[in-house]
Specification:
Length: 299
Amino acid sequence: MSNSASIERDAADLAWSLWTELGVPGVIRRHASLVVDPEPLLVATAELAAVDQRLQDEALHWWETHADRLSVSRIAGLASALPAASRGRFESFSSRRGEGTNVVHHRRSREVAAVRERPPICLPLERPSLVRLRMRALSGVGARADVLTSLLLGRPRWSSAADLAAAGYSKRTVARILTELADAGVADRRADGNALRFRIADPQSLSTLVGDKGLTEPQWPRVFAALTEILELLRTRERPDAVRRVAAHAARESLAAVCAQLEWTPPPPTRGVPTAWDDVLAWAARVVARLAAGPDPVS
């Protein structure tokens, strides 16, 4: 299988695994010990499942069923940060929301359509990976629940508003919530130069309520940003060699910055390298395959 085909397959497999963890009917479930973050996944799905219409349909049906559990402002913030082409694909994807609510069956004997409601997708909140959604059930949908979750999962690390704002909320909103949590005694606060840093004051009590033990959380917004860059590069496969080399170098520079934040090995050098496009794609194929494999296949 070519690197291009394996990247598309593995990107879709990663999305299937995460959506299956959220309750979508699927057979791939490999990320049960990782925290699933629904808004970054939703915003990335148009890219990850570009070649899988069924997955797009299932994700849209899940969104229709559980829209009240998602932060509209966070979806908007994450979408606005996408590159222009990716933002357009997400807008096209999201405009189809609601199309999958009904299933139409045609009787052979008549040219009449009988419409049957699709059953809602159940949300398996008992799964450890859905700790973010359990926190929202406890404290409401929005930035407060997500800030609490990030502080809890990040213990004992001290975090600033800038650290947590990368998850799709404004720094001002996160700073206000952190201050309120500290004023309420839920978070500890300390000065670090000109910045304030915070951590959960009593992680054990909150952990007992929402069940986060044994979980890790990738920086999903940054992971999906890297995947978006890789899939965008893949779209140049039919372009002339010179165009592909330029695209590979631009992608390499962008990916190197994200890799530094994620502590990944960066892509290989591309400047002046005739095989730059193939080299970056080979690196990308290994990265996407590792992400899709997950830390813990359970089916």
